[in-house]
Queue: 4 jobs
Job 1
Amino acid sequence: MAGQWLPPGELTLSGRPVLRPGEVECFLLSAVDIEPDIETHPSLTTYKAGILTLTTHRLIWISSATANDAVFVPLSLVTHIFTPKKSLKAMFASPRIRFELSLSDSGRVDPDKPRHGARSVVVTLVMRGKSDNHELFYTKLWEAWRAHAWENSDPGTSGSEAASSVAIRVPVVGVAGILRKEQEMWESTDKSLQDAFQDLNALMSKAKEMVMLAEKMRQKLLAGPNSHTSTGGDEEMGSKEEMQDWLLSVGIISPVTKESAGALYHQQLSRQLADFVKIPLERAGGMINLIDIYCLFNRARGTELISPDDLLQACTLWEKLDVPVMMRKFDSGVMVVQSKSHRDEEVFGRIKSLVLKPEALRNGISPSDAAMTLGIAPAMAKEHLLAAESRGLLCRDISPDGFRFFVNLFPEITLDDIYLVKDDGIYATWVAAVTS
């Protein structure tokens, strides 16, 4: 694309930005334009009407018109942020934030290099949305830029103090002695507090490293092959499931909140939820109960809990968003989340092979039997059995012991001679199983 001067950003399948290790979302705004100074740099293009995400490391712009189109501005290359001008004209115009951005010799933004200093451009963020959080966004931008979180500078103050000199103990005599003893006590307390905070900082840094490691392993699991052809495939599958359980307990690094997303809260929550349910859906065979998703998602969000209404609204928005998952409601009213690649025909085929077994032909199958075969919860297995019944594959028998499902033999019966016993087909298999 001509005039493409900002580096492309990476997005998830649901259109959320892929964050770097240690990067956290701070604020979101809709309908934001990125306008370079055309007078000094006429070759640079303007990015129109996109969602702007402020993180601790970058400004990420995602196009609202084109799918999978995103660019970003590294905060490390921002050399100056201008104070917004307050005037009568500014009150009736779209809010604007201006900052100076360092460019490479080719006139582009190179995130892999430090501030170049040779060339720069003044960039204007034009906020055309109806949000009233523009001043708060400027404050968050200033704080993120001043924090320099991208440097990850852990100076590693090992507490190498000056050589511990031998202190001469002076006897406590008079008021001076009492003051000296009080001073020594305060110094000892201060040193204990410093040591405690050093241990706490070390623990926090280690925890941060563990979260970063978990995120890398999660990405590797998502990108890994689904088929295991080696001799140790079962062991690999078991270790993968164990790793997925552990990663689900780690949680979401940067959960979407109402404070950071504002008017985009439910839309961004819907996209983040679509990314989150990928691993649980793989473990559940492509379909999982909405209640289970609510529990897993809230556990991963930690203290940033969401309400059932927020979850339902986020799932409803999947119809408008291009995401690989969807919400489905069975005739019984049970709501589930399933991947769009999930096909009921595959489940029906496994159920049909189950009901054609000799024991099932005689006694039928229960939802618990189907749950063991499909590897899902009995409640979900019952919904699949009822769906198979509506397709004409099964017949249901209701007794005091509960539901029992049998293979549907009515299509095998000839209406002209209902007593005719065929020598082949499912009917003959059933007769052989019952009479044996």
Note: Residues 153-173, 226-231 have pLDDT under 50 and may be disordered.
Job 2
Amino acid sequence: MTDILLFSVNKVKAVQISVVKNLRSNRLDTFERTEEHFLKDLILLDGRDPEEDEPQFVMHFDSVRSMEAVSCAAKYSLARSLVSLSNSHCQRDLPLTNFDWTYIHPTSVYSNRGDCMVLLQICFYAANLILLLPGSSPRKMQGCLCLLT
């Protein structure tokens, strides 16, 4: 059995958090909603230990719900999504603890462009460094630079 965490926004713009169980039986997947909460009722999102690369986290509602993401990156993606939803739909900062803040609220200009743009910028700078090396010819690199810019 697998628990799946779903976010939904209803007609009155309330964000609902649902825990759905995936029950497999005879090659058929069936889903059962086991818990429902509203984002405004989320008291605290606890990443457990920011120094360790672990996917476990805890959501504090009226009760405490321990969960495990697929990976640590997925846990941080979930936290960024919840922070964004809380800011836009609940008009409040979501209380977080035990998260590395730089991964939740990026401060770099390039980090808000998405991973693909960051990778393109790194490749562009690397190509420029190659051009500056003694003996390198700008003509050899023009095709590559056109693709990166």
Note: The chain has two domains: 2-104, 110-148.
Job 3
Amino acid sequence: LSTIFPTGWPLDHGLLYSIETLIVQWSGQIWNVLKKDSGMLLLQGDHPGPNAELQFWATRRENLLGIQSQSSKVEQIMEILRRVKSSYYSAFKDVSVLEAEDIDLYLRPLRRQISNLEERSFPQVEPLLPPLFHTLCLIWSHSEYYCTPQRMVVLLQEFCNLIIEKAFAYLIPEELFKMELEEGMERVRISVSVLRSFKKLFHVYRQQIPAYYKHEKDIKLWDFPATLVFKRSDCILERLLMIEDIFATALDFLKLEKVELGGSRGKILSEMVFSMSEEFHDHWRSLRESKYDPFDYANDFIIFFLIQLLKIFGSLLERPRIQELFSPNYNVLLALFNQEIDHCHFILDQHREKSDCAVLGKNMPSVAGNLKWSQELRSRILTNRSNFCQLPHTYEATVYLPGSEKTHKPKMPLNV
């Protein structure tokens, strides 16, 4: 370098410009590596598993090591920039692989545990969860760079996604209501148990974090809100509990087939029970044949289930005493219907705002595909509205809900 820039020699501005241009391009490539975040897929609405986190840090480590392998050339270029006091020197001098190497090293023990979770059948997953949380606590207390809430939340969310995907594979959502009632009930209960166990262990090990730190080391707690980790898991768990109630109700109605009543009115009452049982089977058949995804918590499955359940009870709700007790619940159903209309309205507004929004029909042109999408959204509301209007005492329910007419009228009047 001394022969290139001896004291008193004029500076070669062409050479300096070429070097700075190279630095700008090179900095851009390095910045593209550094600006990527492991939680980007989650922010985009995807549901990656923990392997995505491990792969992310392994790839970042390899990329930064590739840059570091050219250290001799980098040092020469940096020395040139330093001597000529280039403004690019300070912006380019701090490229380190220490963070990526540390995180990649401490995440490696998770590979075997992830593999075990993936290979183990879902009912046998629960015993694997305590060792998993033990490992996560060790990573948190020993890694210099991974002990931040942002990174641990991402990793825990991804483990939640892995548990949920295994639950879906075990439950087979499209076949769940086509199974035997006892089998479906058992699968749902096992899924509820695993999800609850995962969340319970999180809180247990969260309290034990100080025990994983050695003496004279600052203790960092898992002080981030649990809702950041379990938002999706809680929605799935809520839906599972609802489906469990559906199966429990169905099993109760199934017992009607075995009911035999005696006495002077035994024949008449037995026929009424038989009629109710037949009506239940008809509605249960329609539920089994429906195309609703029971785990799509953004969809209107709640209203669909409630309306079907009310249809099953049929004339039983018209009895004076039962009607008196149950009538206020129509207000709850109407409130849910209001929420469904608001949600569909929100979906429509989002669709309008996105110029590149995907059409529903893959083989349709843009206009036809969007028209098809709009028709299905409209059908989603009209179907629920039609079912809702067929229920007894629906008119009275609107009296108890202030503003219900105002809520529906500007969007879709009930008398259309």
Note: The chain has a mean pLDDT of 77.
Job 4
Amino acid sequence: MSAASATAVGACISRPNCTSLSHVPIWRSSSLRPQPSLTDIFFKIPCGFSKRSSVLTGFRRLSPVMQWQDCTVKTEIDVPISVAYNCYSDREAIPQWMPFISTVKVLEDKPDLSRWSLKYRAFGRDIEFSWLARNMQPIPNQKIHWRSMEGLPNRGAVRFYPKGPASCIVELTVSYEVPAILAPVASALQPFTEGLLGRGLERFATFAKSYKSDSTV
């Protein structure tokens, strides 16, 4: 505070009728900084901080939400709808006909849960993922559906439509979050996956016929 300001304050205090200090200069610090907004608090995470940085320069924005893709394929199968449904319900047999699924293990104490592993070479690299899936309440001879609980985020459904007394149509829909490692080829991933699923259903059509023979022995 300057000597003139101190004199003015003292003079005002010494006069009983003086009730305002509006004429006294207000001291402002150039070191004060604005506080971060709620947007900065909730949408930024710490990634380092230094004494020379401002309040917000030690933060970076969260990465964007990963893209989801949906794939749907269907095929006609020359077995009764009940046989196709029972065959597809045998989750541990799926690696025998789905080209990119390497193992499926149903948990003994919780049969609605199963552990899946995927191994396939594509886009110039070996791709491996795993997840824990929960089978939701099925509709016999109509629908099987699931969603992942951990690991690779995915969900899907298999629907069965009668075509005749000895044939049916099987429709498979799979939705998945594009893994970060495959984000650069996301535009090519969806048609590629649909091709794999389509070939899997073709193999399933053959597998279901042998499954029918085994089940009738």
Note: The CA atoms of residues 19 and 46 lie 48 Å apart.
